[in-house]
Design brief:
The protein is α/β, with parallel strands linked by helices. The chain has a 5-stranded mixed sheet with strand order 3-2-1-4-5. The longest helix has 14 residues. The protein is elongated, with a radius of gyration of 29 Å. It holds the Pfam family rve.
Length: 256
């Protein structure tokens, strides 16, 4: 190969950062020279230019967040374990303290019953409940129950499951740790779930808490949590309307 042609290849490689196939096309377009891909590759290897230094692309990552005060936001979700067996889960956004329950279905009957369990077992007063857009959460009976307790209902935007990611991770932990160790036909399955819930809240280290456990984070910050009377005084029922499931307006997506 003639030296001037090699210089053209090197110039295109250094100046425009072209790959081998693009170099072949440009040599033909600019100079009317048709070369084999292997020939161009040998030239680049001879001059130490066979590898391009490209900027490494960084995938966009979701920005992690956590509410600073216990009870400020509780994420809630439901997943199917097997036919006629569903697990409801609620997780406090701040300490990752969870409440879980088993029900034969996900419906406007099971959801209020689980809400009763959450309010009873959660050690702090709840200001907001955040859910996905499942029909079982939008029932009037459910929203009326939340209004009665002065709890704000905050469904996430459509097609944004990452916003409810903390309760999703808790459910995945249950799938990986709890369910393989139990018999789903055991009549005491609910009792064993309660035992695992206690272990999760009081003993199991969490990477998201720097190796701590939810009860420790809760105790560290419980003095910041508002009392039920304070939450009720700040609650404005005129602003908390009954939301239809197909309503994708800005009201369900408010940051508060």
């Amino acid at each position: 190969m003639l030296a001037p042609l090699e210089q053209r290849i090197i110039k295109l490689r250094k100046g425009r950062k072209l790959g081998i196939r693009r170099l072949r096309i440009e040599l033909q377009r600019l100079y009317g020279v048709r070369l084999a891909v292997d020939t161009i590759h040998k030239v680049l290897c001879r001059h130490g230019l066979n590898r391009l230094k490209r900027r490494r692309l960084v995938r966009k990552r979701w920005k992690r967040y956590a509410r600073p005060i216990p009870g400020d936001r509780v994420q809630m979700d439901v997943c199917k374990i097997e036919p006629r067996l569903y697990q409801y889960t609620a997780t406090d956004d701040c300490p990752r303290y969870q409440v879980a329950g088993l029900f034969p279905n996900k419906s406007a009957t099971s959801t209020p019953a689980f809400l009763d369990q959450v309010v009873e077992e959660m050690p702090v007063s709840i200001r907001r409940i955040q859910t996905d857009r499942g029909q079982e959460f939008f029932a009037c009976k459910v929203q009326d129950r939340l209004r009665k307790w002065s709890i704000k209902f905050r469904p996430i935007r459509p097609r944004s499951p990452h916003l409810n990611g903390k309760v999703g991770r808790v459910q995945r932990t249950a799938l990986e740790e709890f369910r393989p160790a139990v018999d789903l036909d055991d009549p005491d399955l609910g009792v064993k779930l309660a035992e695992w819930q206690h272990f999760h809240n009081w003993e199991r280290p969490h990477d998201s808490l720097g190796g701590g456990v939810p009860i420790d984070r809760l105790c560290d910050r419980i003095h910041q949590a508002p009392l039920g009377e304070e939450i009720a005084d700040a609650y404005d029922p005129d602003r908390e309307l009954i939301l239809p499931r197909d309503d994708c307006s800005t009201r369900p997506n408010r940051p508060d």
